[in-house]
């Protein structure tokens, strides 16, 4: 007990001495060089906020690096082996996938998204949403929609969109722009414009960068581009939109017709 009390006194004394030194240094800087005193205070504030930010957990588990453990690797391999056997696959999901650690489950989903394993992604997606630790998250749905857009899976994308609407997930404007651009690059303009309408109705304030991303993706679709351009100029009247030469669209149509001939 005496040793514990002694340690506590030593720590408190150290903190007191440190604070006294800082205060003395501030007084000295104030008289000698006021500018250096401001820099010293700024450095102290930066250190304080930097430490508190580093010690706090990330706001979204979906933005963390996902490393797959040994059990996750075994499960992923078995899922790929059983994907053509629906009954055995569902049985394996109930008996093994649902028992995975959260980190392994998220890593398996991320790996299947990277491999464009749409069928297995949808299976794991449904498992994740039933987990007790699951919370609706913008990045979870963004990754799913980007993968489905890349693979031109319209029905699955509609299902995921209905799920996020039911859970009242809101995308920020940057994410809206990225998702719309992904659908446009996969030559799904109708689906892209449906999401664009959702973006225009969002309570999030519009930003010009998201519109520029969409406008660039709409280059092969001049009529749709004119609609988005009009919205952009209405929202940001002081900004300018670069319009490519008209012969660019003619070149794109010629290339498209050439592909059809082959």
TrEMBL record:
Protein name (Swiss-Prot/TrEMBL): Putative pentatricopeptide
Pfam families, per the entry: PPR
Keywords for this protein: Repeat
Species the sequence originates in: Rosa chinensis
InterPro entries membership: PPR_rpt, THA8L-like, TPR-like_helical_dom_sf
Intervals holding PPR repeats: 172-206
Gene3D superfamilies: Tetratricopeptide repeat domain
